[in-house]
Amino acid sequence: MLKEDRKSDFKLDILGRTYTVKTLKREEHEDILKNSCGQTDWEDATIYLENFVDETHEDDENGMLTQNLGKALNDTFRHEIVHAFFYESGLCNEVDFTQNEALVDWIALQFPKMMKVMMQGKAFDDKEVKDAFAAYESVNRQA
Ligand SMILES: [Zn+2]
C-alpha cells in the first residue's frame, strides 16, 4: 500500500527548484503516463508516478506483492528524481547520457547501496548527514 504521504501531491526541492510530485491512476491519466510508470515534466517541475500500489492488488499472507510494488514505485520515483537532477544541473540539453535510460536506471537502482557504502566509509561531512536526516525526519513528522 502506498504510504499516506504518497497518495496526495507533495513538494520536493531539487537543486533549489520546487517540484510537485503527483501519483496518478493509469486508467485516468494514460495521456500523461504514456508507456512508463513515471514521467517528469521539467517545464512544470512536476514528477508523475503511476499509482500501481493500491487496494486492488491481492497480497499473499506476507504482504509480498504490496512490498514488491512499493519497491518498484520507489525505484521509479528515484529514476525520475535522477532525471530532474540532470535537468536542474543544466545538463539535459548538453549531453546525451542524461537521456540514457539504462544509466538513469542504474543510478536510481544502485543509489541506496551507494549511500550505504558512503555512510559506512564516512564519505559525507557531518552537515551533509545532518541535512539528509533532517529532511527524512521532517517528511516522517508530516505523515
Ligand atoms: Zn527515464
What keyword list fits this structure?
143 residues; 4-stranded mixed β-sheet; globular; binds zinc ion
Can you describe this structure?
- Strands 1-2-4-3 form a 4-stranded mixed beta sheet.
- The protein contains 5 helices and 4 strands, in the order H-E-E-H-E-E-H-H-H.
- Helix 3 (64-88) crosses helix 4 (101-120).
- Strand 1 and strand 2 (17-24) form a beta hairpin.
- The protein is α+β, with helices and mostly antiparallel strands and 143 residues long.
- It has helices at 4-7, 30-33, 64-88, 101-120, 126-142; strands at residues 10-14, 17-24, 38-41, 46-50.
- It has one domain.
- It starts with a helix and ends with a helix.
- The structure holds zinc ion (ZN).
- Zinc ion (ZN) is lined by residues 79, 83, 101, 104.
Task: Present the secondary structure layout.
Blueprint: H1 4-7, E1 10-14, E2 17-24, H2 30-33, E3 38-41, E4 46-50, H3 64-88, H4 101-120, H5 126-142
Parallel strand pairs: 2-4
Antiparallel strand pairs: 1-2, 3-4
The structure holds zinc ion.
Quick structural gist:
The chain has 143 residues and is α+β, with helices and mostly antiparallel strands. The protein has five helices and four strands.
**Number of helical segments?**
5
Characterize the largest beta sheet: strand count, sense, and whether it forms a barrel: 4 strands, mixed
Bound molecules: zinc ion
Helicity level, as a percent range? Answer: 40-55%
**What are the secondary-structure elements, in order, as H or E?**
HEEHEEHHH
What would the average pLDDT be, to the nearest integer? Answer: 85
Q: Strand order across the biggest sheet?
A: 1-2-4-3
Shape designation = globular
The stretches of 5 or more residues where confidence is low (pLDDT under 50) are none
Radius of gyration: 16 Å
Strand content: 15-25%
